[in-house]
Amino acid sequence: MTIAIVPKTSLYEIDYLLWIQETVDKLKVRDFDHLDIENLIEEIESLGISQKKEVRNRLRVLLEHLVKRIYIDMPDCFEGWENTIRTQRNDIKDELVDMPSLKRFWDEFFDRAWQRALLDVRGEYAKKGYQFPDTWQFNHDIDSMLNVDFWLF
């Protein structure tokens, strides 16, 4: 069987950075007739997707460390978990300040992040006998998740 190798033909495929620079230059001079519209649309769409993934992944890490801090009695690890909690909270706050429209996806982010976090933490600590609830036992609104020290309850 012969496999044909199709050569890259567009600047987008050949040199992505150069494609970006040329696209920006064309936009600045309003040369809309010579824009690579299809790839430009694809790139703009992917920006929104990547921002959503960024918040969801940070929320997953936040939840993993909150679960550890709340349910695992390992005082030597508390400081590290709390540092990660602060970092993720601050980074999520920054993302939401920069892109406030991401807030409307919070419940979706939370549900997916919780399932992943729970799976990861259970996998990491199951053999040590730790048990974790199937559902988040506290408020999961944005303000609570980014400010409440749940382990103090």
Structure description:
With 153 residues, the chain is mostly helical. The protein has a domain at 57-152. Helix content is 67%, strand content 0%. The chain has six helices and no strands. Helix 3 packs antiparallel against helix 4 (75-98) and helix 3 (37-71) packs across helix 5. The longest helix is centred in the middle third of the chain and has 35 residues, at 37-71. The chain is elongated and about 60 Å long. It starts with 10 loop residues before the first helix and ends in a 6-residue tail after the last helix.
Would you tell me the structural class of the helices and strands? mainly alpha
Portion in helices: 55-70%
Mean pLDDT: 93
Ends distance = 66 Å
Number of contiguous helices? 6
Q: Uncertain segments of ≥5 residues (pLDDT<50)? A: none
Q: Tell me the number of strands.
A: 0
What amount of the residues lies in strands?
under 5%
Biggest β-sheet strands, sense, barrel:
none
Helix-strand topology string:
HHHHHH
Question: What radius of gyration results from the CA coordinates?
Answer: 22 Å
User: Tell me, what's the shape?
Assistant: elongated
